[in-house]
Design goal:
12 strands, 30% helix
Length: 342
Amino acid sequence: MKAKIIKKTDIASFLDKLIEDYEAFAPVEMDGLISFEKVSSSSEALLDYPNSKMPPKQLLFPQSETLFSYSSTKDTGELEVPSGPEKPRLIFSIRPCDAMSFTLLDKVFGGDFKDPYYLNRRANTVLVSIGCTTPRASCFCNSVGGGPFSTEGSDLLLIDIGDEYVVQIVSDKGAKLLDKKGFEDTGKEKLDLAAGVIKTAEASMGPGVKTEGLKEKLDSIFDDPVWQQLTEKCLGCGICTYLCPTCHCFDIVDETIGSGGERVRLWDSCQFPLFTLQASGANPRPTGKERFRQRMMHKFSYLLDSCDQIGCVGCGRCITECPVNLDIRQVLNSIAQLESVK
């Protein structure tokens, strides 16, 4: 592990120095809710927090964004594409599960059909994550390839060892941040402390989800009537998809404004009836059963085919915020216990 040490009393000045060079975002509490917002001072940022209600996904993949605008006269027309952020961006105090979510979005938006809007923001953003010493009961990152101190997607990882943070250097982008003063070399004693913190946090997590063989099981029960039973509690409200750091479905609409207009991309959800409604009136997912099945299949089967990665980071937001207490872990473990259909 390549790492440095910084005293907790110095972390505020470190962030303030970064704010001078970066457009900085961090978890902020407003009206009792924690969300990632732009900060102008370290005093606004939270380091000791369970997790934000909304993931920081919208910083790279906004809930609504103009792709281009146009104007026209009788003889001419103009097209304008919005420019990206002028300053490099910093997302500070992000949890490892949310940092890991960007590794999937990188594959989705950087695949065969590259999305310049997302990719430009991503290339211009550095992530400083803070490990979870006390994972919540709803967390199951350890079941889906992550962990409370996973470095996937991060550039730096802060590990709380008491009065100091061990700062694990994950990438060259992260290493450049340590040019700021306040860091000391770490020794074996501090690294051993960090290893102990990580081990304790991992041991505190529950059994989570059985993902071994889950894709094959899902593929085999696509037409099984069990989906009707599994989806009985679901309201189809879509909150699980809107609060999910990896869900990325969107719609595109053209809005006319006088002699011009703009093309806008908006988040959408596979849980909504209109998502697959065709102009003819046909809908391949006419009921909640098909839409619920789509969410499970996409996250735990289809994305493994297209991106070689599960579409879930185990953040637990869909569990804590579901209005009918539908726990995805129970659903998946119920599926794992089913007999495969040949």
